[in-house]
Amino acid sequence: MAHYQLDARRLLCPMPVIRAQNRVAELLPGDVLEVTCTDPGALNDIPAWCRINGHTVLATRRDGNEVIIDIEVGDGT
User: Fold this and answer.
1) Cα–Cα distance between 72 and 1 in angstroms, integer?
2) Rounded CA gap, 7 and 63, in Å?
3) How deeply is 14 buried, as exposed, middle or buried, from its count of CB atoms within 10 A (0-12, 13-18, 19+)?
4) Which of 16, 20, 30, 35 is the most exposed place for a label (fewest CB within 10 A)?
5) Can you tell me the distance from the alpha carbon of 13 to that of 4, in angstroms, rounded to the nearest whole number?
6) Is 24 within 8 Å of 73 (Cβ atoms)?
7) What pLDDT sits at residue 14?
8) pLDDT reported for residue 77
9) How far is C-alpha 36 from the geometric centre of its chain's CA atoms?
């Protein structure tokens, strides 16, 4: 398992989800991707995308105006 970071700050919907999707496609099951966004909608959009695509949201948190979401990559089933 490896830990990666994605900077999706200053991107508006749907770009944080698209960038997360593209990055997750490059990772292995069990890897963790930490996505940092400034679009508050990502707090709903990324977890919804994860549920649909078999990934797990490990944590969500706010740091000032930033939203940080930790995703564990699923195996695609």
Assistant:
1) 9
2) 14
3) middle
4) 30
5) 21
6) yes
7) 94
8) 59
9) 8
Euclidean distance between CA atoms 65 and 53, whole angstroms: 27
Four-point Cα dihedral 65, 41, 7, 51, nearest 10: 130
- 51 SS3 class: helix
State the pairing for strand pair 32-37/3-8: parallel
Indicate the residue type of 18: I
Amino acid at 9: R
Query: How confident is the prediction along the chain (77 residues), in pLDDT tens digits per residue?
Result: 899 999 999 999 999 999 999 999 999 999 999 999 999 999 999 999 999 999 999 999 999 999 999 999 998 75
Catalytic residues: 13
